[in-house]
C-alpha cells in the first residue's frame, strides 16, 4: 500500500468516497440524529420563550388593573392572582418573581401565615439571586409577627452571616436586636448593642438611610446611656490615689 503522505488529493477524495459509501448508513443516521437533536433543542427553546412571555404577561395583568389578559380573572385580590401565576409557571423567571410578589403582598396585608408559606415556596424555587435575602427577611419577619421568635431569630442571623452585602442585613440587625431586648439578659443586651451600633453606623454612612437607621439610633440611645451611667457609678466607687492619701489620718505627735 502506498504511504498516506504520498497520496494525492484526488486519491484522498477517492478514499473518502469509498469510506462514505461503505458507511453511508451510519453517516446518514448520524446526520438525522444531529438534525433531530437540533430541532428538539430549537423547539424547546421556542416553547420556553413562549412560556416566559405568557407568564410575564399574566404577572403584568395581576398587578395592573387596566391590563386585560385572556382567561385571567380580574375580580380576585392581587396576592391570589400572583400566587396562581406562580403555581402555573413555576419554572419561569416571571413565575418565580410572581411568587415573591405574592408573598410581599400577603405580608403587607397582615396575612403572615400565607406570607411565610409564599416566601418559603420562593426560596425553594430559587438557588440564589438578588431577591433571596429579601425573601429570607420576609420569611423571618412573618415568623416574628406570628410569635415564632426562635425561628425568626435564626432567620435574621442567617441573613447577617450569609448575605453580608445585602441591604436587608441592616434590617435584620435591628429586628434581631428587638427580639434580644424583649427578654433581656446581660449577654443578649450586649449583643443587641453591638447589632444596633453596626446598623446605626451603616445607616450614617449613607448606605441605607430611612426608617431602619433611625430605629437603630432610637433603640441604641438608652443602651448607651445605661452603659455610661454604669461606668460612672463604677468610677465613683473608686477613690483616686491622691484623694485616698489625703484621707489618711495624720499621726499625732508623741507627748513624750
What is the rounded distance between the termini? 140 Å
Q: Can you give the mean pLDDT? A: 78
SS class:
mainly alpha
Number of strands: 0
What's the shape? extended
**What pattern of helices and strands is seen along the backbone?**
HHHHHHHHHHH
Unreliable stretches, pLDDT < 50, 5 or more residues? none
**Compute the gyration radius: what is it?**
35 Å
Largest sheet report: none
Q: Roughly how much helix do the residues carry, as a percent range? A: over 70%
Our estimate of the beta-strand percent is under 5%
Number of helices: 11
Notes on the protein architecture:
With 256 residues, this protein is mainly alpha-helical. It is 74% helix and 0% strand. It has eleven helices and no strands. It has helices at residues 9-22, 24-63, 78-88, 93-108, 112-125, 132-145, 149-162, 168-182, 186-204, 211-236, 241-246. Helix 6 (132-145) runs antiparallel to helix 7 (149-162) and helix 6 runs parallel beside helix 8 (168-182). It is extended, with a radius of gyration of 35 Å. It starts with 8 loop residues before the first helix and ends in a 10-residue tail after the last helix. 27% of the residues are buried. The mean pLDDT is 78.
